[in-house]
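Morning F.,

Quick status update on the modeling queue. The single chain you submitted on Monday has been processed. Sequence for confirmation:
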Amino acid sequence: MGRDKLKMVEITYFLVPFLIISIGFSILTALTVKNRIDEQYRQLEETTLEIANSYSHSLTHTSKAYEIITELLDEKIMIASQAIMLIENKDNNEVLGSISKTFNVDEIHLYNNEGVVTNSTYEEVIGWQAPEGHPVHDFMMSDQTMLVEDVRPDTENGLYYKFGYVKDETGGFVQLGILAENIQDFIGAFEITKLLSDISNRGDVKHVFFVDTKYEILASSLPNYTGSTIDVKDIREEMDGNESDVHRDEINGSSFFRISVPIFVEKEKIGSLLIHWPTDKVDAKITQMLRYATTVSLIVISITGGILYYAYRKNKSNIKIAYYDELTGLRNSKYLTEYLYQVLRNPYRRSKAVLLLNFVNFKTLNITYGFLYGDEVLKQITVKVRTLLDSDDLFFRFDGDRFILVLEDYADQQELRAFADKLMHIFEDPIIVGTERQYVAVQIAIVEIKDRHTSTDKILQDATLTLSHIKDSSTDQVAFFNEDMEKRLLRQDKIVKVLREVIEGKDTESFYLEFQPKLDLMKDKIIGFEALARLRIENLGQVAPDEFIALAEEKLLIYDVGNHILLLACDFLKRLQDEGFHETSVAVNISGIQLLREDFVENLQQKLFSSEKVKKPLEFEVTETVLLDHFSQINETLEAIKKMDIAISLDDFGTGYSSFSRLAELHIDTIKIDRFFIDKISHTAEKDLIISDVISMAHKIGLSVVAEGVEDERQKAYLQKYGCDIIQGYLLSKPLPEESAINFLRRYESDPQQ
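Structure tokens below.
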């Protein structure tokens, strides 16, 4: 599982794309260059082959021309020899000289039938007889009447001649000779060697050879190779074929194309033309091409790398903005969500736990010292926590003053608790920012990731729920999540939903009032009731007032709930009046939230009393704690309420911080002594009780006294003895439903002793 997104992005968003693009572009460039190189060599091959073939045609034509000229020369020699035999005075040497000029021959010799020269254009050879084995002797002894020899050296003077012979009927014969050098002059323009020389004189041809079918070099642009035999197997195999062939070759470190072109005369192969064609020009062009391609590749790769690196830096910056807290450098809540999602997807995950750290007094620091100061405190918190972390532990800033740790591979809850205690311990020392020393209190909610967690939201929900449990607890500042917390949350959610439906008028059954009677001790008469809110919810049963009132305050519903209670109480008061109990009062508890609302008094006048249905006696009860922080403002509201003929009682007197000096300033009519003091009457000596003093002092400042929670006759007797005005409690009656309260009132009036 990827743990560090900044490291992930370095590999994922830079190196891999850069390598892929670089390799891909390099391969594409290499293939393109290779194709261009192959194209260059192919063009060179085609060009060289085309030129070689053209020379092969020339060579073929030359061979044919040479053959034709040779045949014509042989025919000329034969005709001249026959003509000489027909001349009558041919035995005259001078005539022979004239004939030689006429036929453009160099020598004429006449032989008798014994092979002796009888006449000649050269007098020094007259009388010479051809010895046995001599070509002349061989012709004389043969049955041939005519013969033309190939060029051979003369046996007497060593000069090369081409000789022709014709016999007459007597056996005598004539010999005609033409000097080889004269023959060369005649057919020189058609000689193969000259043609090869012309080929080699081209600027783009290095060497040229003409090789016969027996692999002998008959002609060459390199004279020292003429007459030698080719013994290289590959070259022989090339020349054995009847098709042109091209191969790369190396000679003395230089690169060449070796072109082999077969030469045919009358469909008969007479040899092969071998041409060595240098590749230096093409190689130079290819080298230039490679340099250009390399330069372009480097430029493109550099530009691409620069773009990718910029994108990488930009992406890394975006990743940092998206997944890391700018202030502390920690992973943020988005990172946490994605990380936990990956954890839940892994079926083989190791044991993991989430620790939610909440710094309870951080908001006060921001208000007192400013946000910059608060930021420095957060940085110091980050540094402190990191001192306890291992490399596998993950640290996140969840939101403003809350952090999350993810621990893994722990043994049990004891190990987690020990780690949490270490965290608590490091914050026992103050955080120093500038010259200020600040103590920060931390609460730690621990959630072990189990199979029951099917979503990231569920994990974080459980952590937040555990934290709220710590806030409600006020004892231990470390807590582990358990399912009872979730049940409690579901219960609270159900209660809040019902309260909202009650406020909106959708539910008229769940929320109701019960009424506890109050007895005037002097008159022994029920003078009123205290309206007590009750809530009964399906599947939850009866919900304690302390529970749903606290939830109403937490969810900011208490004002609307209070108004609803007041409306129900007024309905009951209206019924009492309708039943004839005009002097019976109904007391309603009013919250501090209601009293602090500027429109509370105005709403009372407009909504409750505008119809004139409700008259006195209505009574409001307020607690001491409401007065602590807003004494003057609430006292002004109480004054306005009293002007509406509504009596006011101070509830739970003695549990708060009120003094009799402040009571004298309050716009109230009655104090209600808390049952905490009333309970003491049953097990405390009378001389040690202070209730009598409280009653006496209240009377002195004009206040009546109500005793709450009276449960036995001893308590009643004591209170009656010391002048308590009114009592209420289970001794008289428990809180009663509306109908039961009416019936109780009727019965008591008819028989107070029942």
